[in-house]
Amino acid sequence: MKKLGLGLLILVLLVIGAGFLFQQQIGERIFARAVDNAVTRDVIGALPDGINVVLCGTGSPLPDPSRAGPCSAVVIDGKMFIVDIGGGAVRKLGLMGLNPGATEALLITHFHSDHIDGMGELMMQRWAGGGRDAPLPVIAPEGVEPIVDGLNAAYAADAGYRIAHHGAATILPTGKGGVARPFAIAEGQAEMVVYDQDGIRITAFPVNHKPIAPAVGYRFDYKGRSVVFSGDTIKLPSVAEACNGCDLLVHEALNAEMVGTMEQAFAKAGRKRLAKIMADIQNYHTTPVEAAETAKAGKAKMLVLSHIVPALPFGYLESYYLKGVDAAYDGPVVLGKDGMLFSLPANKDSIEPGDLL
Hints:
Blueprint: H1 2-21, H2 23-40, H3 43-46, E1 50-57, E2 71-76, E3 79-85, H4 89-95, E4 103-107, H5 113-116, H6 119-129, E5 136-141, H7 144-154, H8 156-166, E6 178-183, E7 192-197, E8 200-206, E9 216-222, E10 225-229, H9 237-243, E11 248-254, H10 256-268, H11 272-280, H12 288-297, E12 302-309, H13 318-321, H14 325-328, E13 333-335, E14 340-345, E15 352-355
Parallel strand pairs: 3-4, 4-5, 5-6, 10-11, 11-12, 12-13
Antiparallel strand pairs: 1-2, 1-14, 2-3, 7-8, 8-9, 9-10, 14-15
Helix pairs in contact: 9-12, 10-11
């Protein structure tokens, strides 16, 4: 028995020694295999027919190492639609195996910086990596034009460098940048269809994020399945009305009690400006309980919370963040995290969860 134990120990030591001795050769093989797997991976092609929702960013302007800025991807029939594009979200798409080149359109809910500051990177990655021959359509309320024009100007030199380096046959000059597709919802109008092709219908509806205006949410419909994105808003009947039995409601959430604690801490530390900001942001967002009430009123099949405020550095805080939610809504509630996947197969009732990170 002792000899067997000694032999096993010697074998383990030999394996460890070989690992150090041949580290470069082993590393070379591991890297080659990882690259091959990454290049041949087709996440979009493997998704079921229907609506597939991926959380590519569930954070906010507050620092959170586990979350990119606000971003949701909707994949339907090989086409990817992006709803808002916060900082770091494009790289999260890459980590999840979602090729930015598949982006059919970018939809913006409003023009706060944390919802648009990844737009330039998405334009570049879609064009250069995706081989696109036409600019990225940016569907958004009126006011988006100068933003898109400004980013096109800011990236003009970079675009020129890439065409010069790789050649116009590889980097098609006609595909660079973005093109604004603005829309305006008249006062008193409940909704407006902003995309309707190949059985995919996207409807915008107004929300209240004052003083930020315009601000909208979006509803996607395809083959009997539906998902609604609230955008940033206070609790509103219009979100529940837009849901109206939707399969998935992706709603922003700010825990006012937790943010209030931060406000008091900043005030106590004499940091009056930040204390004021923490006080201000509580009056134009929706609390988790209010989002749950909206899900109940809208008869949503599932509620997913995103745009999480404040940051939750470890999971133990999640129960506190969701305090009172169970009493407000008896359906399934998911605290959104980057990489989460929700598949809504066509013409069925199921919601199939997954994780791409």
